[in-house]
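Would you mind writing out the residues of a protein together with its fold in token form for me to study?
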Amino acid sequence: MIVRNLANGGFFTFLCYLFPLILKGCGIKQFANGSRFLVLRFVDLSQNSIKNSSGIKKLIKYSPWLEFLNISGNGISACTELEWKQRCNRLLSTLTQLENINAKVIPVNDRIGAISLYGSTHRKQQLEKIRWELHLDTLPDVRASRLIHPGWQPQGILQIQFNGCQLRHFYIGSMVNLNSLDLSRNLLTDISVCGIEKCTYLQYCNLSSNQLTRVDATCQMFEFTPSIRCVVLSGNIGLFYKKELIYRTRNGCGTNRSLGIQQIDTDMITINERVAIIHEYELKTNGSNQANATKVSSELRWKLLIIERIGHKQLQNIAFPKSNIQMVDVFCFKNIEIIDFSGNDLFQFNGLRALYSLRILLLQDNPKLDTKSIVDQLDQLESLESINLSVNGDQSHQRYPKNPQNSQYKSIGTWNVISSLERVEAYRYTKHWVTTIE
């Protein structure tokens, strides 16, 4: 029996999109010209009369997604073990997705070996890419989506772990929701073109015991992964990366109690270590400007200490009255609603511009504070209800309140809330002033 295309109207169209094909014991000898099953994945042709590979040549040529093939009980299977292995290798060298022959699972390494022996020149050139794709195909998340989503949906992959798979190539740029990557004990030499910079949710990355040698190219990639918390690079000969990693990831999201990367190999990063490294790198990048490096590291220490103490994601109120504080940056407290730094020695207060939830700002009794810089940061804060910049202890100060009875704020109930009328009048004044200047 010869299976022909049955090209009568719509029936052949139906066969083109056939997913499984089961023709057991039907006396089939071969597939004729025109037999094309473009999305075929499961084939059972056991107990037929197929004597050699030419009998299924058309099936192999036009079914690139074939995964399961059962040709047991055919003449093609009646051969020596060596001949059968050669026939299987030739099938595997053509069908990349084929993973099961005669109900026997074929390991990834055997499939790669078959391509090395019998694959075309083009497929041999793509060998490392194919190796990565075959290992990727073994992930439970990928396999679970096959029957539901025939197409490739990499955004559903959250975790990858391929240890000791001899990988020299990988690409994860399309896996935008990936949060854990473990490719330890492979043969990787470079990660600059792997697409890791597109994985904005990546938190854990283990590339230990590979062959990475370029510190700058390796560490630079983690500068673009804002969620990274732990990186493992041990076992890469001659790679000194700890300081570079800490500096590159200094602006990362970190956790609710810290910023940047939290762990390198097995070592947790301390505040003192982080600040010291930032100071060292600032000296290198700014031409040994000691004053600037000290300023940057001091500001960072303040941020880290305050975040470690009270967190920075869920925090809504922050109050440090009469604490001898001179400089503050609150940029990281995105959900803050009430700020109270009254009675300090502030001369600089930064980070207000992006605090869109801020309602109350109390900075009274800070005579050295640059109020112009404060006002310049408030132009986008539509939720702001109350602000106090007065100086109560010095009547000669220009910010001494004209109405003394309103100069002290003992409870929330006594805060002067800005009325709607005052807001409108301020808007009219500002608009008229800007028009006059123009």
